[in-house]
Amino acid sequence: EVLAALRARLEHGVLGYTSWQQDDFRSAIAHWYATRYDTTIDTGQLVYGPSVLNQLSQLLRMWTEEGDGVVVHTPTYDGFRKAITGLGRELRGVPVGDEEALERELSRPDAKVLVLCSPHNPTGRVWTADELARTAALAERYGVAVISDEIHADFVHEGDAGGPARVHVPWTRVAGAGRWALISSG
Domains in the chain, please, with CATH? Predict the structure, then answer.
């Protein structure tokens, strides 16, 4: 059985890293989003990056300046904290689920980016489509860019903690016309 599995894998032909920024790479990501999440991804807008923190840092450098506010839900992944403060940006924490605090922080003139971890790390909170739509509306109203880290999208389990089953909703489904980026393991 093991030898048969090894032979099948060897016959596949891809034994290492994929070619980045190639049409087949981008098409595979678009296909995954279409079949898994019933949403469309424009392959022309896909950009490869080596890690979530690398892409987050690059986007923060492009969209913010030192001293600008970057809003995150707390508790937050420590890598986010280090990336944001390491670039001289002001980390603005908002408790998970506190929409009033979220609006208060997004409405501040120096708030430039919301880093949305979806599903949330470390709490595992899976945002509903309505929650994400309200967040998108707030970000658009206040001119705040959104970086949606969706690297844990496929770790959603049905009926977590005895609650109703939730499914991951990609930011692409709720994003308005404002500036945004989605980071995923693809």
Answer: 1-46 (no CATH), 49-183 (3.40.640.10)
